[in-house]
Amino acid sequence: MTKDILGIFITEYDSPAKADGVITSMKNCPHLVVASTSGNIVSMSFIVPESLRWWFEGPAESPELLGAKKVDVFIINEIIHPEKFEPRLPKTMLNSPPCGTNCHECPMREKYNCPGCPAVE
């Protein structure tokens, strides 16, 4: 069984409008557990397989990947509940990620051999 980890992002954007746009684009991410905004600050929590740890570490090192001014990430290695997380996949697989990202242009895809979004066929 694959071990899952929790990543909590606290991200600062240039404006509340940009923060709201990020929440709107990420709301259907299969890995998203919860998201919120407060002014230009976005808080999001994601659960991913441990093999995708870089998914949390990359934006912390390079906030520009998210179009952010600053990204703080907290990684939780031991999730108590849920015991097994199932990504929220759409009823019909998509042609592109629900967040609008073009995975083929993402520099992290090649660097970490990323399989791409699980919501895309």
How would you describe the overall organization of this protein?
A hairpin with a 2-residue loop joins strand 2 and strand 3. The chain has helices at residues 16-26, 54-61, 107-112; strands at residues 4-12, 32-38, 41-49, 70-76. It is of the alpha+beta class and 121 residues long. It is globular, with a radius of gyration of 14 Å. The protein has 3 helices and 4 strands. Strands 2-3-1-4 form a 4-stranded antiparallel β-sheet, covered by helices on one side.
Question: Can you summarize this structure?
Answer:
The chain is of the alpha+beta class.
Number of strands: 4
Strand content: 25-35%
Share of helix among residues?
10-25%
**What would the average pLDDT be, to the nearest integer?**
90
Query: Over the alpha carbons, how many angstroms does the gyration radius reach?
Result: 14 Å
SS-based class: alpha+beta
